[in-house]
Amino acid sequence: MTTLLIIDMQVGMTWPKAEVRNNHQAEDTIAKLLEDWRKRKAPVVHVRHISRTPNSPFWPGQPGVEFQPRFSPLTHEHVVEKNVPDAFINTGLERWLHARGESSIVLVGVSTNSSVENTARTAGTFVLAPGCASRHPSAINCS
């Protein structure tokens, strides 16, 4: 079965409202995919960025670190916390997938040119472009 891997759909990714970004429909696409995966009882993994920088909106305990409400994991869905752009580095994600015999993933989320790209490179998988978005590089601050 194919696993849906949702990258960094956190509240802090909505601050400030990104006027200079691509694919403003990414969130709707991700929500539809998540609904489909849940209906089929297929595996879903939610990835959350936890910053090592105290003033970051992704610092533990800050409201920005929480998942956006429509992407909140269900109790049986796996959550991975990462400190670097790649969801496979120091997280146990590869072990979790391997233990379940999962060899196929669909990758969506933000930011395309950071966490999504780095995770896709490690996974050696394809990215579902309509389910990804990125801000102009000068507007990205995911420390």
Automatic annotation (TrEMBL):
Coiled-coil portions: none
Every Isochorismatase-like domain range: 2-123
Gene3D superfamilies, sorted: Isochorismatase-like
SUPFAM superfamilies documented for this protein: Isochorismatase-like hydrolases
Pfam families tied to this protein: Isochorismatase
Cross-referenced InterPro entries: Isochorismatase-like_dom (IPR000868), Isochorismatase-like_hydrls (IPR050272), Isochorismatase-like_sf (IPR036380)
Protein keywords: Hydrolase
Lineage top rank: taxon: Bacteria
PANTHER family referenced in this protein's UniProt entry, alphabetically: ISOCHORISMATASE HYDROLASE, PEROXYUREIDOACRYLATE/UREIDOACRYLATE AMIDOHYDROLASE-RELATED
Name of the molecule in the record: Isochorismatase family protein
